[in-house]
Write a structure and sequence with these properties.
By secondary structure, the chain is mainly beta. The protein is built from 5 helices and 14 strands. Helix content is 9%, strand content 51%.
């Protein structure tokens, strides 16, 4: 019964589901998918990270709805231009969905330029772009079609009349963004940004013609930061808004962090916990730790939408690990403020 409910909900919004991009609840730990202008924006000189999301396991087994990704980025020329620098990055992402294993695989490269707005390097205005290649594929042998029901029974493999002609297709894509990052005090900093995805307007289809299947442009606006009450207690708010064709996403929330080993020139060990809300979709409890350049976060989506009738409120499990290292050239001696 649960699978029937899920199928009905998905079919009612299939066009929207096909058009939307993979996303993470802990989007702040996936900077390159959020905004290419964040490439190279980190404490340190290089960074690597992995994200993994698995959802709808309570009703979709043995089908898989999973999104793993990995990225790496680093700063270059940071010691030559008075606080200005370049960021370079690479991103790999795979998304699998449903019984037919609809698979999206992407490989992207990104670059950003970070312009210092003061002589201390505490304020930066950034602009960046990302370009890459995406392939989508589906396994038709794992799907059942209406004409395989013969009236007297079910005949798997019976010649289907469905006009799917390609089980794989690929396209190139382009994304751009801007961001502003400010370290406003010894214990506080924030970031504002905006990005546009699918600028090149790629087309996708499993049929022969792609003329009516242009991928909708995605617009993203985000803001968040780390605000220290003192050198031990931090408030970590974030907001994300995305619009793609008729689909909208608004995520707001706050985490509270406590620094168990405060120090003037390094982050220390911060444990945090909080709740985010994806409007009209899910509550997202989140916990994590930051220590020695490692950021580790775990979240779980609790469905509040109509899909909760099938999931019983159970949604998506997500884990993220990001590691930053290296000592950048710094012209100031302010506290090494933690950042989401």
């Amino acid at each position: 019964m649960k699978k029937i409910i899920l199928l009905v909900v998905m079919c009612m919004s299939m066009q929207s589901l096909f058009a939307q991009d993979p996303h993470f609840s802990q989007f702040y730990y996936s900077p390159l998918t959020l905004n290419p202008a964040l490439t190279g924006s980190m404490n340190g000189t290089w960074r690597v990270g992995v994200n993994y999301r698995n959802q709808w396991g309570s009703i979709s087994a043995p089908a898989v709805y999973a999104t793993p990704s990995a990225f790496a980025d680093f700063k270059i020329l940071s010691g030559r231009f008075s606080g200005n620098y370049l960021g370079l990055g690479v991103l790999f992402l795979t998304d699998k969905a449903g019984d037919g294993q609809l698979t999206t695989s992407s490989a992207m490269i990104s670059m950003a330029y970070h312009q210092s707005l003061d002589n201390t390097g505490n304020y930066h205005l950034s602009a960046g772009g990302m370009w890459g290649w995406t392939q989508k594929g589906i396994d038709l042998t794992r799907l059942d079609f209406f004409d395989e029901f013969t009236g007297t029974g079910f005949k798997p493999g019976f010649a289907s009349l469905d006009p799917i002609q390609n089980t794989r297709f690929a396209y190139t894509d382009l994304m751009g963004g801007i961001a502003f990052d400010a370290m406003v005090s010894d214990y506080s900093r924030f970031t504002l940004g905006a990005a546009i995805s699918h600028i090149s307007k790629p087309k996708e289809s499993f049929y022969a013609s792609t003329s009516d299947n242009e991928i909708g442009t995605r617009y993203t606006v985000h803001a968040g930061g780390t605000f220290g009450v003192n050198n031990k207690v931090y408030i970590l708010p974030y907001v994300l808004y995305q619009l793609q064709t008729s689909a909208q996403e608004l995520v707001v929330g706050t985490a509270l962090g406590y620094n168990f080993s405060p120090s003037r020139y390094k982050v220390g060990t911060i444990v945090y916990g909080g709740v985010f809300n994806r409007m009209n979709d899910a509550f997202i409890p989140t916990v994590g730790v930051m220590m020695n350049g490692v950021q580790f976060g775990v979240s779980y989506d609790i469905n509040t939408s109509s899909l909760s009738n099938a999931t019983g409120g159970q949604g998506g499990f997500e884990v993220a690990v990001v590691y930053s290292a290296g000592k950048p050239a710094k012209k100031n001696k302010r506290t090494f403020c933690p950042r989401f």
